[in-house]
Amino acid sequence: CDEVRGNCICYDGYAGSDGNGAVGSRPDCGYVNAAISACPGIIPCNGHGVCDPSTFRCTCQDGWGGGACSLRTCPFGKSWFSYPSADNIGHNQLALCSNMGLCDRDRGICNCKNGYFGAACEYMNCGGGSG
């Protein structure tokens, strides 16, 4: 999938979905429009996962994701902006790149927005001073 453009080039037998597995206009390859007889990828699960022969679904190794285990995963951190989960407890939800960066699926790293840093963009650069 091309996250910049927001669309995917689907393997044979897959097409855009409605977001719930039925055929639709989303360019996500989430609809299966043919009988599946193998796991996705030229090499099953692109060599980054294990194919379940009964469902032809991939279980990806750590660090890999997507239906065909072809996308690097990025770290999750506590969300900078989320609803509190209880009184006196906030920002408890985990979010990809802490919602303060974009995941580079080719390299598996977060590209943080200005003012944020860390593997999951979990730290804020307060600027000036050292403490």
Automatic annotation (TrEMBL):
<dbReference type="InterPro" id="IPR000742">
    <property type="entry name" value="EGF"/>
</dbReference>
<dbReference type="Pfam" id="PF00053">
    <property type="entry name" value="EGF_laminin"/>
</dbReference>
<keyword id="KW-1015">Disulfide bond</keyword>
<protein>
    <recommendedName>
        <fullName>EGF-like domain-containing protein</fullName>
    </recommendedName>
</protein>
<dbReference type="InterPro" id="IPR002049">
    <property type="entry name" value="LE_dom"/>
</dbReference>
<dbReference type="Pfam" id="PF07974">
    <property type="entry name" value="EGF_2"/>
</dbReference>
<keyword id="KW-0245">EGF-like domain</keyword>
<dbReference type="InterPro" id="IPR013111">
    <property type="entry name" value="EGF_extracell"/>
</dbReference>
<feature type="domain" description="EGF-like">
    <location>
        <begin position="35"/>
        <end position="70"/>
    </location>
</feature>
<feature type="disulfide bond">
    <location>
        <begin position="60"/>
        <end position="69"/>
    </location>
</feature>
